[in-house]
Amino acid sequence: MGIGVRAYELDSLGHVNGAVYLQYAEHVRWECLLAAGIGLEALRELGVAPVRIEETIRYHRELRAGDQVELDCVFEWGQGKVFRVRQEVRRGAELVAEVVNVGGVLDLGTRRLVADPEAVFRRLAVVPELVGL
């Protein structure tokens, strides 16, 4: 998904503020979930919501106002209550940053992570391959 860097997203050094990378990444994760058929309303009907447990950014290049970037979204499922989403931020062919998100699915009633987040996404996904299922 393409995103244009806006001037108000810059820090005092004239490049994109680190928090903005996280906003870009979260926006693209939600777009990926929606494209797969997994919307917030459907998740809430199940009494769950995705949560962010940890996020890291590895910077490779600076972004400045007017740059156009593309982000991808690769879900990695394993054992247990968490999953990872790896995202690359690219300006054309150039790797600008990598964002890795560790997430889970929160049971809104118990306020605990569900045991099998993959099963929740699989239950709702219309296009499961978009989220690595």
Automatic annotation (TrEMBL):
Gene Ontology MF annotations: fatty acyl-CoA hydrolase activity
Q: Which Pfam families match?
A: 4HBT_2
Name by which UniProt lists this protein: Acyl-CoA thioester hydrolase
> EC number(s) on record?
3.1.2.-
Q: Which organism is it from?
A: Crossiella cryophila
- InterPro entries assigned to the protein according to its UniProt record, in alphabetical order: 4-hydroxybenzoyl-CoA_TE, HotDog_dom_sf
- The stretch of residues making up the signal peptide is none
Residue ranges annotated as coiled coil are none
**Keywords, A to Z?**
Hydrolase
- Is Hydrolase one of the keywords? yes
Superkingdom is Bacteria
